[in-house]
Amino acid sequence: MSELEWKPQKNSSVPLHQQISDFMKKKIMNGEWTIGTKIPPQRNLANLFQVNRSTIVIVLEELAADGLIESKVGSGTRVTNNTWSLLASTPPPDWFSYVKSCIHKPNISIIQEINKAEEDSTMIRLGTGELSPDLLPNKIMGQTLQIDDEQSLSLGYMEPKGSLSLRKTVRAYLRTKGIEASPESILIVSGGLQALQLISLGLLNRGSTILHETPSYLNSVHVFQSSEMNLLGISMDKEGIKCDSIGRLKRQHHASLLYTIPTFHNPTGTLMSERRRMELIDVCQKASIPIIEDDVYGDLWIENPPPKPLKANDTQGNVLYIGSVSKTLSPGLRIGWIVGPEPVINRLADIKMQTDYGSSSLSQYAVEKWLASGLYSDFLKEIREELKYRRDFTIKILNEYFSKIATWSIPKGGFYIWLRLESDISTKKLFDLALREHILLNPGMVYDKNYFNHLRLSYSFASLEQLEEGLIRLSQLIKTLS
Asked: Are 448 and 405 in contact (CB under 8 A)?
């Protein structure tokens, strides 16, 4: 209901309460607001429809009198009937119970709040993990998609593993990272998140245990949890995930996989050292535990290229490598890839065909053009310069306004600064307070419940003016709560 575009017409001859009542009745009677749907509180409805609260009181009284809604102390107001249920001898489906019993778990409430708040164009988004729309190559992308008669573009379904031409181009791109992979061992997917979904569906049993860094991106998405799998965190230091407990945890919990973001980790921004990468590969090979390497930030280094991906030193087919252009070129294209042993890729390709019949052929065409033409590498040079400027700009503000209230490390690439607050203030309270001030944060507890005094700051999305204003105001809010 927070996404309604309709508003009552204040210059209409029809009273405001009648307009709103008719609108809500229509939603209920058309089945858009089904039985069990919760009606927002009066104050929220007044803000939503931009009317006085007294007008909303009249509306709700009318709907209750018509038998369409019912209020109960402690559970709020819900839709209890519609036209069908009032006239028919049998009630309509209770869709609310279907929603509550679905297999896929809902996002945690604070993630849902973040997703809703991101729709507000007035919000200063200090945690959003993507490039600013101003940095995306919209004009050049438009030119790329101007196709002449001699260019081959298929608008039909692609091969199960994705366009062969794109997979050959990705193979050449991966070689620049030290990864050797044939087109047969590459699967084109609709972004890194789908790669994780396919792995959870195609390779793991219910109840499997996944090892991961803590904090972790996996805790902010319910890909594995919705398949009834268990997540087990392993602590990190400045070099990345600690390896000494992996073998023991694998044996104790029969762990199936280890998930890692070694390059510009989400949310901490940590860059795993080359020494730790070699140690991780060795430990996991000895423990017979495969690795999922998420390298979606790998191209976003600032001063110096990072160490080679884990996959570049994988001689036993132990690493499933995930790459994507969603963090670099365009989140909207939804194109990424999984690299792994052919039997695994064949299995995941089969699952993908069952779920979506392949990623967008138009998006695959665009990504191939960018990778093959050199446009992508040229664009990355510009983005790295922009990210360096934004990172340094943000660090300067932090040094001036946060030196006594927080600590942080300077990232060597990616989007994120992992801010640790010195005081034990609740970041949930800080989140709520900042949201009322139109500042959107990503609290650390989104990535692990134990990181209640951390924030994931992003310097990639907000404008420089918004970064400065938002961070200064954030420092004031922190001092107020302290």
From this structure: no
Number of H helices, E strands in the chain: 16, 17
| pLDDT value of position 107 | 74
The predicted structure's pLDDT at residue 380: 97
- Using one digit for the tens of pLDDT, what is the confidence trace for 354-366? 988 889 998 999 9
Place of tokens 């209890």: 80
Q: In what order do the strands lie in the sheet with 38-39?
A: 38-39, 76-79, 69-72
Strand partners, 413: 301
Residue for token digits 């260019």?
Answer: 151
pLDDT of residue 33 exceeding 90, the answer is no
Joined together, the tokens standing for residue 74 give 């402690």
Work out the angle at residue 52's Cα, subtended by the Cα atoms of residues 47 and 56, and round it to the nearest 5 degrees: 80
In this structure, are residues 402 and 200 in contact, taking their beta carbons and an 8 Å threshold?
Answer: no
**Which pairing describes strands 236-237 and 439-440: parallel, antiparallel, or unpaired?**
unpaired
Residue that has been written with the tokens 């819900």 in this structure: 78
Within 247-299, strands assigned E span 257-260, 291-294
Q: Please say whether the beta carbons of 440 and 461 come within 8 A.
A: no
29's CB contacts (< 8 A; 6+ apart) are 82, 83
Distance CA 62, CA 104 (A): 37
CA dist list (Å): 441 to 22, 29, 411, 422, 434: 37, 38, 19, 17, 7
Q: How many CB atoms lie within 10 A of CB 417?
A: 22
Cα separation, 479 vs 473, in Å, equals: 10
Which residues sit opposite 320 in a β-bridge?
292
Instruction: Judge whether 155 and 362 are in contact, CB under 8 Å.
Output: yes
b/e map 355-368, b = 16+ CB within 10 Å: eeebbbbebbbbbb
Any residues with CB less than 8 A from the CB of 371 and at least 6 apart, and which? 166, 169, 170, 172, 173
| CB-count burial class (<10 Å; 0-12, 13-18, 19+) for 375 | middle
pLDDT tens for each residue of 355-408: 888 899 989 999 999 999 999 999 999 999 999 999 999 999 999 999 999 999
Burial label, 310 (beta-carbon count in 10 A; 0-12, 13-18, 19+): buried
Both tokens of residue 367? 């990504």
Would the CA dihedral through 307, 308, 314, 317 be positive or negative?
positive
Q: Percent of the chain at pLDDT above 90?
A: 71
Average pLDDT over residues 56-64: 93
